């Protein structure tokens, strides 16, 4: 750990002054929030005979408002828009081919993905050969591979980035409004006309809209901190209006209700993205000064160096920890979910999982 930290500090010290460190910070921050949120909503319970897994959002609907904090995928997408814009401009200056650009962008995404799929393929085979119930193996593997949904759509957004970036360069904010309008139309068809055939397409319209925020950021086409704060409040107000006065559910993560804000994504995620983007831009100047501190920036560099690894493996680590606790007689997972003791032990639960995840990621 000491050696790795020393390497991170060395890399941090060598960072060019022109680099926007806030982009890297937001990427690391959003992934850590997602990881913590996934660990928090997974309610395991061992009753002495078998393990069950429940969604705490379904068990306690009154806490679904917390998902407005833990749903930070919009941050990752507008950070991706910024990074893709910078990368495309750099590629253009080098006269690089589309294939070469795409290979470079996807390498860090796909390589860790292949590893986790291979490991779970082997685990599923071994478990079933040693008599594990197929249903239990299916639940464990599907839960561990939940993060892949994000990579599936983000890879498509990256593949389309040269096209959407040209669209942005030609039309500016009008191109953003096109994506938003199509997404709103799909939602209207769903709620007003009960037409669900187009729902899947919102994976593009919603996330391409949020990704476009990053293009505006990369070009400096954002307002003053006061204007960005006002935009943030506007997004929060729109989100509240869509949920409190509209047909959208409260939870912004998962699908504890019959209708989901995320499967497929709805316009509520665009409103949430506006809120998060405006707030992030309003805080940009003080945060960039904060990130000039060597230790803070070194920690950001370290997390970003293994960001896809921790993201893809965090649920696998949770499954392994649960298996170990099961073999120890249900230690820590024999507490009935949504009781006072269960909530009091959540900080310890999160800490144990991070202690297990860090060496796994470093390995």
Structure description:
The chain is an all-alpha fold. It contains 17 helices and two strands. A hairpin with a 4-residue loop joins strand 1 and strand 2. The longest helix is centred in the first third of the chain and has 32 residues. The radius of gyration is 21 Å and the shape is globular.
Instruction: Give me the Rg, rounded.
Output: 21 Å
Cα end-to-end separation: 11 Å
> Mean pLDDT, nearest integer?
91
The amount of beta strand, in percent, is: under 5%
Low-confidence runs: none
SS field, number of helical segments: 17
Main-sheet strand order equals 1-2
Sheet bearing the most strands, described? 2 strands, antiparallel
Structural class designation: mainly alpha
Query: What is the share of helical residues?
Result: over 70%
The helix/strand order is HHEEHHHHHHHHHHHHHHH
The number of distinct β-strands equals 2
The shape is globular
Keywords:
363 residues; mainly alpha; 3% strand; globular
Task: Please write out the topology.
Blueprint: H1 2-13, H2 21-41, E1 42-46, E2 51-55, H3 56-59, H4 67-70, H5 73-93, H6 98-129, H7 134-144, H8 148-171, H9 173-193, H10 202-218, H11 225-244, H12 267-282, H13 284-290, H14 294-305, H15 307-327, H16 340-344, H17 346-362
Helix pairs in contact: 1-14, 2-5, 2-14, 2-15, 5-8, 5-10, 5-12, 6-7, 6-8, 6-15, 7-15, 8-9, 8-10, 9-10, 10-12, 11-12, 15-17
What is shown here, in short?
The protein is an all-alpha fold and 363 residues long. Helix content is 73%, strand content 3%.
